[in-house]
Amino acid sequence: MLRALAAKGGVVHINFHIGFLSQTFRDAWKQCPELQEEIESFARRLCGENLACQLLETSRITRERIALGQLPHVDWTEIVEHICHAVNVAGIDHVGLGSDFDGADMPEGMEDASQLPKIARALSAKGYPAGDVQKILGGNTLRLMQDVEAIAHKMEGTT
After folding, report:
1. H/E segment holding residue 15
2. What's the rounded Cα separation, in Å, for the pair 131 and 129?
């Protein structure tokens, strides 16, 4: 899929949700349906039909369960590993950040956007030139948006 996306000029955005970053976490989560139900039903009882509240509570409880060792720890460095894999497969011009700070369970050390500089530093430490880091941090997404805008103008006959 990554190669096909790159061939069309697209950009894959790496999502930071721990369930996407860690197979170990996914496997543990699937093996504990009773824990899933316990977490989700507690959030429903606490929040009623308020889905935003349910999301926040589910995330909070999941982090507590990770801290207690009931679910595996996922570190922010997994994000960097996913970025590097995507770059190796799709190429530097086709990878960006998807984050999902508004509803995903974030890995340890990437709880909010203030932590994003860690990714830039880690990519630099791995030898990515500054220009390539800029592409990943948003340049590729801006390029894609410009491409889409140019196509839209062309289709409208305004170019």
Report:
1. strand 12-15
2. 5
Q: Which helix (H) or strand (E) holds 46?
A: helix 33-47
Task: Residue 72: name the closest of 34, 112, 38, 32 by CA.
Answer: 32
3-state SS, residue 98? strand
Sign, CA torsion 142/147/148/153:
positive
DSSP letter (8 states) at residue 159: -
pLDDT digits (tens, 9 = 90+) for 42-76: 999 999 999 989 988 998 999 999 999 999 999 99
* pLDDT at residue 102, as a whole number: 80
Report the C-alpha dihedral over residues 128, 120, 81, 20, rounded to 10 degrees. -140
Is residue 3 within 8 Å of 90, Cβ to Cβ? Answer: yes
The closest alpha carbon to 109, from 101, 118, 100, belongs to: 118
Phi and psi of 104, rounded to 5°?
Answer: -105, 155
Task: Report pTM.
Answer: 0.88
